[in-house]
Amino acid sequence: MRARFLNMTGKLKIGMVCYPTIGGSGIIATELGLLLAESGHEVHFISYEQPVRLNTALPNLFFHPVIVNEYALFKYPDYTLPLSVRISEVSEEYGLDVLHVHYAVPHATAALLARLMLGSRRKPVIITTLHGTDTNLMGNDPHYRPIIKYSIENSCGVTTVSESLKQQTLEVFQIDHPIEVIPNFCDPAPSKQSREDLRSSLGVRDDEILLLHMSNIRPVKRVGDILDAVSRLKNKHQTKLLILAGGSFEGWEPELDRLGIRDRVIVLPNVQEIGDYPNACDIGVYASEQESFGLGILETLAYGKPVVATRTGGIPEVIRENETGLLVPVGQPAALAAALDLLIDNRALREQYGHAALLDVTSRFNAQKIKTRYLDYYRRHLRAAGA
Ligand code: GMT
Prior knowledge:
The protein is an alpha/beta fold. About 40% of the residues lie in helices and about 15% in strands. It has helices spanning about 25-40, 80-95, 105-120, 135, 145-155, 165-175, 195-200, 225-230, 255-260, 275-280, 295-300, 315-320, 335-345, 345-365, 365-385, and strands at about 15, 40-45, 60-65, 100, 125-130, 155-160, 180, 210-215, 240-245, 265-270, 285, 305-310, 325-330. Strands 3-2-1-4-5-6-7 form a seven-stranded parallel β-sheet, sandwiched between helices. The chain is globular and about 70 Å long.
């Protein structure tokens, strides 16, 4: 059996294919790539733009842009084909061992095409991580379903970010393919700004409770339920809501006036980095209809803050109910408000949950631990492919 590992030290050459935008999948791919590069592996990011958080210069960290030209002949610009060409070029030029692709479509599909193009030349193993959309948004679309299923079944290894997404994927695609659950992780950077400074820059008094919501504000996040809940709070005049929006908030502005909560809501639109904002808050609030994991929730817990969220998808795997946060049904702003009021009223409970959250994130979603799980998974598949 010929070992495919880069060298005797077991360091790997890894291609990381992801969306470069602020979404959780791009953040996880970038942070994982950085951790792997910091531990000596050679990491090659392949995407249409440099990922947002890829701002560390290391000699073993590379970014290879995918160039998409537009042709009058094509009504719709195509990304999958130039991506597959770039993947095959980088795989061959650098002798990649592993291609870790985030999302089945179009990333795993492009990786499979790249492997075909490499023919009898040395090929990387394809590890596909599913983050949710492949299954819960496009999985039921007959125009995508077969190619997603094909891309999953033909990847060398497949991981999901939660047990819930694994079960959903097996069910939606009716497959029998082994899937490994490797959860997301979070390792908050040391604070640069104090809680007091941040709160005063936001105009939040010491005696006010600051709620936090961080998301890209897509309809699936049900931001309307959060605003509605804030308007129903018993403790409304003692509470403010900070929204870190990974996009525009314009569409929701009229709702602030309609609900009479404009003076209670602080919105920071088009945010790229969460900075130390979770430190300034007291409770996280998330009302998603569907969430395979909920990276924003994990980031809030990681700062030692309890979270109130909806009981859906992978969220109950991230929040320990009645230990680190409270769970409510989807689409019930009154229940969301009642759960928030419970924590707003009870400082000791808030602190107890917050403390438990910090410990839980450190033990279950520790960055180094999850990095090692991915490395073990890569190596397991390299061994299988090396036969
Ligand atoms: O939720 C989003 O709008 C963004 C999306 C993404 O592609 O980043 O998030 C998905 O992947 C994240 C990272 O694994 C998960 O934390 C989110 O729960 C998941 N979103 C959904 O399932 C709706």
